[in-house]
Amino acid sequence: MERKILKNKPLVEAIFEIRWKLHELAGPHYKILIGRIYDRVKDRYPFYEPLPTATMPDEIAGYIVQYRFRKDKDKWPLIQIGPGIITLNDTEGYVWEDFKKRICNLIEILYEAYPDSESNLKVNQLLLRYIDAIDFDYEKKNLFKFLEEKLKVSIKIHERLFKETGVNNLPLNIDLRFTFPSIKPKGAIHLRFVRGKRKGVDALIWETMVQSVGNDIPENKEGIINWVEVAHTLTDEWFFKMIEGELLRRFE
To answer: Tens-of-pLDDT digits for all 252 residues of the chain?
Structure first.
């Protein structure tokens, strides 16, 4: 089903992440890989940005991003890379068709650039993650009512806990996490709600993540590219079912 492009979308960040087995601590493959990938992406992402984590010793740097490749300083989308991990990140300018093309290109480049990838590149995690946010006044609004009426999530704490105890039933903070098994793609879908800020304003942050690990991961790059499409279909369906009604109209 074709979805509308939301003019006022609540997206904070979209992230695709791929991890692979480290045969040894960062190792020689990683040092070679940074240069090889940059050579292949510099036309689209010419701005090279070392992160503070780039100075970390190899012994503790596994799966921590250390470098970014951007179109320009502070511009999105961007690629991040570290030992055993590479990500593609986008923000307000995100459009799925463009993001998907960039993911597919990144996967092709990873397999092309990784030394002897057919033998050495063993992918052990795939993740597609969306972070959304909506302004929320925690001191005046009923969060549980908002979750139930606007986001199709019902959380109930019995009123007896508040009655005659001197405790206000409007929560000052929230961090709810759920994980459900997924058949297509094989793996899990995670849902999280947490208090945060967006542009300096109190907000309800919610994350939708599809993840596959270990034996649930396709065996080749073609399978991984297909996984991306299937994972997006699932996150997209959950997102639009959750915001159906007033929030959808607000975001259109």
So the answer is: 566 789 999 999 999 999 999 875 455 567 789 999 999 999 999 999 999 999 988 778 899 999 999 999 999 999 999 999 999 999 989 999 999 999 999 999 999 999 888 888 999 999 999 999 999 999 889 999 999 999 999 998 999 999 989 998 888 889 999 999 999 999 999 999 999 999 999 999 999 999 999 999 998 999 999 999 999 999 999 999 999 999 999 999
- Is the domain of 104 the same as that of 15? yes
The pTM assigned to this predicted structure is 0.94
The parent domain of residue 17 ranges over 8-121
Is position 220 within any domain?
yes
121, 151, 166 — which closes off a domain?
Answer: 121
Residue 127, in any domain of the structure = no
Same domain, 146 and 80: no
For every residue of the chain, which 3-state class applies, written as one string? Answer: CCCCCCCCCCEEEEEEEEEECCCCCCHHHHHHHHHHHHHHHCCCCCEEEECHHHHCCHHHCCCCCCEEEECCCCCCCEEEEECCEEEEEECCCCCHHHHHHHHHHHHHHHHHHCCCHHHHCCEEEEEEEEEEEEECCCCCCCHHHHHHHHHCCCCCCCHHHCCCCCCCCCCCCCEEEEEEEECCCCEEEEEEEEEEEECCEEEEEEEEEEEEEHHHCCCCHHHHHHHHHHHHHHHHHHHHHHHCCHHHHHHC
